[in-house]
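Re: [ENG-882] Designed sequences occasionally contain unexpected residues at chain ends

Forwarding the minimal case from QA. Structure tokens:
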């Protein structure tokens, strides 16, 4: 199936996962998702997505296994050491110098998996700042969507093989070893905060100085990558640094960041002009705080009301309790507010949702302490007149930063819009007047279009190459994950083989120490085991008799006398009396033997064979 064509059955499965477990895979690359889900389906014996949905409904525990398979957690300490060295030597010194003495340092490790990357950050920062400064100033927020991986990360304990990437001096300095497991230092561990966070849905952590997200973006499609990068831009402070993995190429196509070291995927935030960067404002006169304004006003609020009413722009003020506190004359006339409406909750007023839904915007402004601007909001007045507004929601604060509420201004842009439309109409007439000139330029435009087409083809080819590179990196991550699983399985097989060899050695020692001959038979009376004492008695080696029927062996035992006891043993009878028989040993001398038969197996279960002891 083409990579651009969606598989409807796969989409149905993804929609089911979203509805049943709230996990949205919409922004993930379908090629990667398809491979990972197919791998899990093969393990449980499913061959169709529809059948797998039924399987998930019957086996709810399968969700955890599926998410573990889809969310590839491939990470290690100091992964790509050259990039970490560049961060430590070239980027962090300037970043920390710009913070000033004593200022807090906030770091976000997005997609931290089982925590190795977050603890690597802690070691790098502690080396750059010193232990005391690190403990006092640094907070590292480590997030992922995999709850099981976060649980392992919070434990801060790793097995010996997982520590291969940590230099020996740092291993001794930052980890405590016990039974070949290494725990990160507890006094530094308190600087790390682990939490669940979905990059595609959840609001970003704000005011971050360093954001590390390595080889996570490559699992998302281009649109989702751009959305995540926009959130990263919002999260970073001015001059903040973004550290990505080798597979990420999206930043070559965005204006949000400028490269510090493109090859090592180190970028710095570009400061863009916008409303989110403006500081909160307060109502009052220039250079005058609220107490001074109240004193000038004589404490009765009339001067404040006069200032508001004099404004030609409709303006209202909402307190921190959600109550309409102030509304100037323009706002009262525009929205039909009366003095009785002052002091009422905003949610009880029509103004809360007309001309635009205000409550969610006010909540957003109160939470982020940043203004919000809504443009070209259409509204039909009670007289039937259509008007448009720019709605500006701004937080109000005291001099020490305490919250007072929000102010909402409604700037009438109806006339400006009308003038804009008239201007567009005039431009259309002007375009008509210039048709002859355009005809003259057609040949040049045709040439430009051909050149543009060639450029677009080259850009498309470049996009395809970048997409292919990301796909190859993704497959490399999957192969690395499978390799780690195989190494774990091989280690388990080696351990079990050693245990089996130890058991066999133990059993062989016991059998060799017995003074009697021991023969172990299966249910068909074929020889499974023949101990050294049996070789000495009857002159046949173990490799000569193993696998042969017991009654076909040419030894000096009277076989007919043993048929009935062996049948009773195979039927489960454990009370077979020993027999005393006359036999001939390997030297041809007559001997008298005591033969004991017993069932082979666990009591209470069907015997797996019989044990014959000859003394």
């Amino acid at each position: 199936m083409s990579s651009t064509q969606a598989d409807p059955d796969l989409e149905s499965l993804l929609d089911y996962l979203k509805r049943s477990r709230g996990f949205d895979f919409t922004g993930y690359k379908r090629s990667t998702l398809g491979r990972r889900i197919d791998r899990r389906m093969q393990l449980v014996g499913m061959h169709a997505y529809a059948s797998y949905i039924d399987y998930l409904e019957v086996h709810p525990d399968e969700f955890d296994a599926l998410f573990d398979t889809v969310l590839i957690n491939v990470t290690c300490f100091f992964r790509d050491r050259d990039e970490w060295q560049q961060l430590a030597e070239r980027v962090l010194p300037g970043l920390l110098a710009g913070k000033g003495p004593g200022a807090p340092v906030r770091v976000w490790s997005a997609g931290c998996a089982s925590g190795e990357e977050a603890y690597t950050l802690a070691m790098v920062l502690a080396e750059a700042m010193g232990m005391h400064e690190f403990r006092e100033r640094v907070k590292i927020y480590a997030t992922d969507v995999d709850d099981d991986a976060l649980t392992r990360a919070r434990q801060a304990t790793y097995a010996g093989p997982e520590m291969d990437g940590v230099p020996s001096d740092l291993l001794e300095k930052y980890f405590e070893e016990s039974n070949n497991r290494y725990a990160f230092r507890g006094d530094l561990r308190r600087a790390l905060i682990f939490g669940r966070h979905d990059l595609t849905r959840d609001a970003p952590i704000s005011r971050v100085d360093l954001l590390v997200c390595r080889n996570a973006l490559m699992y998302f499609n281009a649109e989702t990558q751009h959305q995540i990068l926009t959130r990263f831009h919002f999260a970073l402070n001015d001059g903040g640094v973004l550290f990505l993995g080798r597979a990420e190429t999206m930043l070559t196509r965005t204006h949000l960041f400028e490269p510090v070291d493109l090859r090592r995927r180190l970028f710095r935030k570009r400061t863009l002009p916008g409303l989110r960067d403006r500081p909160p404002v307060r109502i009052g006169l220039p250079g005058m705080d609220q107490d001074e304004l109240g004193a000038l006003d004589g404490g009765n609020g009339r001067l404040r009301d006069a200032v508001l009413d004099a404004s030609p722009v409709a303006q209202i003020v909402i307190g921190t309790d959600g109550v309409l506190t102030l509304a100037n004359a323009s706002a009262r006339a525009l929205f039909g507010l009366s003095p009785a409406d002052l002091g009422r909750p905003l949610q009880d007023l029509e103004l809360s949702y007309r001309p635009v839904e205000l409550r969610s915007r006010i909540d957003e402004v109160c939470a982020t302490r940043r203004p919000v601007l809504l443009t070209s909001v259409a509204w039909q007045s009670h007289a039937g007149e259509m008007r448009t507004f720019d709605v500006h929601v701004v937080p109000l604060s005291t001099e020490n930063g305490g919250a007072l509420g929000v102010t909402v201004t409604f700037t009438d842009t109806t006339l400006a819009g009308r003038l804009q439309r008239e201007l567009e109409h005039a431009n259309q007439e002007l375009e008509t007047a210039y048709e002859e000139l355009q005809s003259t330029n057609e040949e040049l435009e045709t040439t430009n279009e051909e050149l543009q087409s060639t450029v677009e083809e080259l850009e498309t080819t470049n996009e395809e190459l970048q997409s292919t590179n990301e796909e190859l990196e993704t497959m490399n991550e999957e192969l690395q994950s499978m390799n780690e699983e195989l190494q774990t399985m091989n280690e388990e097989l080696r351990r079990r083989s050693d245990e089996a060899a130890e058991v066999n050695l133990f059993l062989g020692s016991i059998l060799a120490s017995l003074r009697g001959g021991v023969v172990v038979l299966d249910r068909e009376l074929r020889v499974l085991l023949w101990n050294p004492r049996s070789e000495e008695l009857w002159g046949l080696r173990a490799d000569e008799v193993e696998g042969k029927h017991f009654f076909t062996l040419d030894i000096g035992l009277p076989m007919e006398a043993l048929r009935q006891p062996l049948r009773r043993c195979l039927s489960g009878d454990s009370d077979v009396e020993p027999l005393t028989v006359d036999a001939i040993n390997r030297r041809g001398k007559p001997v008298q033997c005591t033969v004991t038969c017993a069932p082979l197996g666990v009591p209470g279960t069907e015997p797996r064979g019989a044990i014959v002891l000859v003394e």
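QA comment: On inspection the terminal residues look reasonable. The longest strand covers residues 386-397. Proposing we downgrade this to a documentation issue.
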